[in-house]
Amino acid sequence: MSVLDNWDSWKSFLGDRINFAHERGMSDETISDLAFEIGGYLANQVDSQNQQEKVLADLWSVASEDEQRAIAKIMVKLVENNSTH
After folding, report:
1. What is the superkingdom listed in this entry's lineage (predicted)?
2. pLDDT, tens digit, for every residue of 15-64?
3. Which of 21, 39, 63, 72 could make an S-S bridge to 26, C-beta 3.0–4.6 Å?
4. C-alpha angle 57/63/65, rounded to 5°?
């Protein structure tokens, strides 16, 4: 089973990776830039595995680059907030 198969697993996976990046001294800006790059890759190369990923892919496909960067930042914020609760 892939982490992409389940939304909660995906968020947990991302949260773990973001925590790891923070522990290694990576800046929030760098993490957001990586989230933007990963978001673009996932939207263009990976089939959505659940409804939440489909919504994100649909939003990503119609968003400008600035909006895509905002989506990436929001995803980072979402998983950071989930990992602290």
Report:
1. Bacteria
2. 888 999 999 999 999 999 999 999 898 888 888 888 888 999 999 999 99
3. 21
4. 110
Handedness of CA 79, 81, 84, 85 (dihedral sign): negative
What separation in angstroms does the CA of 63 have from each of 60, 71, 84? 5, 9, 29
Domain-by-domain residue ranges, the chain? Answer: 3-83
- Any alpha helices (H) in the chain, and if so which ranges? 7-23, 28-45, 51-62, 65-83
Architecture of the domain defined by 3-83: Orthogonal Bundle (1.10)
- pTM here is 0.83
